[in-house]
Input
Amino acid sequence: MTTVLFTCAGQRVDIVGAFHRAGAVTVATDVNKLAPALYHADHHVLVPRIDTPEYVPALRELIDEHDVQLIVPLTDLDQLTLARAREELNALVLLPDAKIVERLEDKYLAHLLFEERGIASPPTWLPERVPPDAPFPLLVKARHGFGSRHIYRAENRGELDFFLGYSPVESIVQARLGGEEFSIDVFCDLDGRCLNAIPRTMIESKGGESIKGMTIRDERLIELARSVSEQLELVGPANIQCFREADDTHFVTDINTRFGGGFPLPLAAGGRYPELALALARGERPEPRLGDFREGIVMTRFFSDLSLMQNGDGTLKPLAEV
Output
């Protein structure tokens, strides 16, 4: 059986559970002992903070102890650290090259990368470089980070200056698009070949995470995702966000090199992304299966809970069997 290490497990019970059902032995890590996904894994360990020098050595210790073959980061927080340390970790890190991870994490550098590779993206500027004739409304967005935090809509120059001063984080300014937004969950092999791409509508999001959506069979979106992911040589899962404007042009706004918040939807639609990840870890080379999914699958997410009790040694355990 393939052993998978999940970092920054947090609340991603859906992903840990899906890999377990696919036949993996699951090891989950987090810095917070109340992270619920820890208790849905076969093994769980609390690790040092990502920003400490002890983080990577702690992971390497776990990899050796549990004979881990595959590392799957579940948030953006440690992706660059893992991508840079892949040789030291001695297991397959399901991420693209560190240079791509670094540029996609920085939304301004991502925009420049898209332009370099011929991928259409909305006009984007650093705050001091916004042209005087930039058409309003404009969006002030966090340059780093995830979850749609610190996004503000400016209707005029006065509001733009206000929000740039108000935002507590480094920002970029981006043209606001007026078309329909889509999200496309892709999975690529170690050579950057797109194995599948599953578009979905964005019916409702909360805190930047999709909570309602539906899979759609849209050949233009499938081809867009295939082209974008292969131009960037993505590896493993990624979530591509884009807009379709009234003239049928597409603009890519963001790419997250991990399983997206809407992971349950492509899973329910038959994407079998955990199985593809495990196949890569076994050294296999699955063939592309673009378009092999069920359209019209609707997802609506809800809160759940997990009760824990003291374990007698300072740790916690589920009150009942998970």
Residues 219-231 form the longest helix (13 residues). Residues 44 and 106 are 31 Å apart (CA to CA).
